[in-house]
Inverse folding.
């Protein structure tokens, strides 16, 4: 009997401790980003700097049937020399749950200022690419993409 009581006490305490330790901190955020979240994500990268349009080419299909795998290429007009090169390329979206798609670091040894990848798009939205040059300037391009079958919102069965 004594063993049973001890075992029950132990299991009760262990279960209670596990339950207390297993309670995750829950952060609530919207299911999709908002234009304000997009602006905040861009501000986190550029600070208070002026972002000018130009030098950046964002190649994304304007109409995609399936948002699960959308090809994207960002290229920046730059000689990519030690004195004049692209330091980074940042890609943002307007409506995905996370507004920052990716951050890519480059340097003069990169050869050319270009990145290519595939992205997921939750809905029809604006994609923004911003490049930071070695002189500290920021340049951008944006594209509106129409998505007929959204990604990131599929139901799990």
């Amino acid at each position: 009997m004594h063993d049973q009581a001890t075992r029950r006490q132990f299991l009760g305490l262990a279960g209670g401790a596990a339950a207390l330790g297993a309670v995750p901190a829950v952060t609530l955020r919207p299911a999709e980003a908002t234009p304000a979240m997009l602006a905040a994500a861009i501000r986190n990268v550029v600070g208070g700097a002026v972002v000018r349009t130009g030098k950046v080419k964002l190649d994304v299909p304007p109409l995609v049937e399936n948002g699960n795998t959308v090809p994207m290429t960002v290229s920046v007009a730059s000689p990519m020399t030690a004195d004049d090169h692209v330091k980074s390329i940042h890609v943002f979206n307007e409506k995905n749950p996370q507004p920052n798609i990716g951050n890519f670091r480059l340097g003069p040894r990169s050869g050319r200022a270009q990145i290519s990848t595939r992205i997921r798009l939750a809905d029809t939205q604006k994609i923004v690419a911003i490049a930071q040059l070695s002189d500290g300037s920021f340049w951008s391009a944006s594209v509106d993409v129409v998505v007929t079958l959204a990604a990131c919102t599929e139901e799990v069965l």
